[in-house]
Amino acid sequence: MTDDRQREWYLSVGETGYAVPPLPFFDPRASAHPLASLLQSIRLDTDLSRFRRRDYVYATIWDGGSPFEPTYRRLLDDPQWNVHALDSKHDVMRDAPEELLRILLDVGAK
C-alpha cells in the first residue's frame, strides 16, 4: 500500500539515480535510502530453522495505512516468530529506544 507522498519519494532519486533522499521528518542524520530495496521484493525461501529465533518489530504509528501491517498480521499467527508492536513511528530507534533496546537485549540473551 503506497500513497502519493510515498510514491513521489520513491521517484525522487538523487544525483546517482540509485538512492532516494531521507524524508523531511526523518532524523537529520539519516542518509539516502537505496532505491532497489524499495522496489525489489525478497522471498525467504530457505530453511529458516538455522536461525535460533525470529523477531519482527512493528511500528504502530503511521500516517494512513502502514505498508507493513499485512506482514505484522500474518506473523502474529505464526508461532515461529516473536512479534513486537511498538508505539512508534517508522524510526523505532529514535521513537522507542528503550523498548527496542529491551527487545535486542532479550534476543541476545537467548
Description of the structure:
The mean pLDDT is 85. α3 (69-76) links the parallel β3 (55-59) and β4 (82-86). A two-stranded antiparallel ribbon has the order 1-2. It folds into two domains: 1-42, no CATH class; 46-110, no CATH class. The chain has helices at residues 4-11, 35-39, 69-76, 92-95, 97-109, and strands at 19-20, 33-34, 55-59, 82-86. The chain is built from five helices and four strands. It is globular, with a radius of gyration of 16 Å. With 110 residues, it is of the alpha+beta class.
Pairing-aware structural class of the strands and helices? alpha+beta
Mean pLDDT: 85
Number of strands: 4
Low-pLDDT windows of residues: none
Rg over alpha carbons: 16 Å
DSSP helix fraction: 25-40%
> What composes the largest sheet?
2 strands, antiparallel
Shape: globular
Strand content: 5-15%
Provide a count of the helices: 5
Alpha carbon gap, first and last residue: 35 Å
Element-level helix/strand string: HEEHEHEHH
Strands in their spatial order, largest beta sheet: 1-2
Counting structural domains, the number is: 2
Protein name: Alpha/beta hydrolase
